[in-house]
Amino acid sequence: MKIAVVLSTYNAPQRLEPALLGYAAQSLRDFEMIVADDGSTSDTRELVKDIAVRSGMPIRHVWQEDLGFRKCRILNQAILSTHAEYLIFSDGDCIPRRDFIAQHAALARPNRFLSGGYFKLSAQTSGRVTPSTIAADEVTQVDWLLRNGTPRSGKLGKLRAHGWHAALMNAITPTRPTWNGHNSSGWRADLLRVNGFDERMAYWAQDREFGERLVNAGTRGVQVRYSAICVHLHHERPYKTEESRERNRGIRQETRRNRASWTPDGILKTSAPDPRITAMHRPAADVAINRFQTAQ
User: Fold this and answer.
1) Which secondary structure element, helix H or strand E, spans residue 220, and what is its range?
2) Residue 186 — left, alpha, or beta (φ > 0 → left; ψ -120 to 50 → alpha)?
3) Contact indicator for 166, 222 with CB cutoff of 8 Å
4) What's 228's DSSP letter?
5) Which CATH number fits domain 3-292: 3.90.550.10, 2.40.50.180, 3.90.1070.10, 3.40.50.10540?
6) So where are the chain's domains?
7) 102-125: average pLDDT
């Protein structure tokens, strides 16, 4: 199957760079890299171009004008920009373990989406991340984390699990599988069938609402939090407001009350499901798409 990674970002090139370097170091190399950019300045575009040249990894940069928080819209445009059958979603502040894509590919199943998590790094540990530690896959290893400012905690167990141990922990964890924007994956046809992300939603739980519609459509979640590993760089969230929480909470309640599988404010702005959406490959005219790769 053809795989694409969709990485969301907004004006944070200092965090996007280590995330992209993590994908350049993946054990499974046959994938398409898409940066879904919610209106960053030219610094991000130049970084993406530079990483593509330095790493040899082709990257598609899907960009829209900065008109406030519109992450859901740029994610929808990223979905439309690719012909890949299977899409892995993460954020531009998360560094994947070397087998991140391989794990998502191996665990993919029909009529299922995969639900992963992240391990949050402290400010001190985040400051010690370098291109060489990413290339060596040290930043996801417990010993390196403990030597570089991460306090001991039970959460480190997530990073220690491998093979049958990881599979067992995925099976017995009480954490319910939900769509998590920093680490989830699914079949493009399933994502389109629910009309993508709800573009009315601001910051907070917009990913969970998307997953709830997938479940209502018959696409159930599978827990992979101990198998598909990424670490989250420390940063503040000034865009997090009580107003956005209340607005999104109302939309989620509506989705749950109606057991909705389709949003009228997704890729298509229609109240009724349109089966033709599963064949769509047409980004909006106001979205810029740049393709960067090494010179041939």
Assistant:
1) strand 220-223
2) beta
3) no
4) S
5) 3.90.550.10
6) 3-292
7) 97
**Nearest-CA neighbor of 111 among 186, 57, 28?**
186
**Largest separation between any pair of C-alpha atoms in the chain:** 55
CB 257 within 8 A of CB 185: no
Query: What is the reported pTM?
Result: 0.96
Length of the chain: 296
- SS3 of residue 91 by DSSP: strand
Residue with token string 């060489």 = 132
- Tens digits of residue pLDDT in 181-239: 999 999 999 999 999 999 999 887 789 999 999 999 999 999 999 999 999 999 876 66
DSSP state of 155: G
DSSP 166-186: HHHHHHH--SPP---TTSEEE
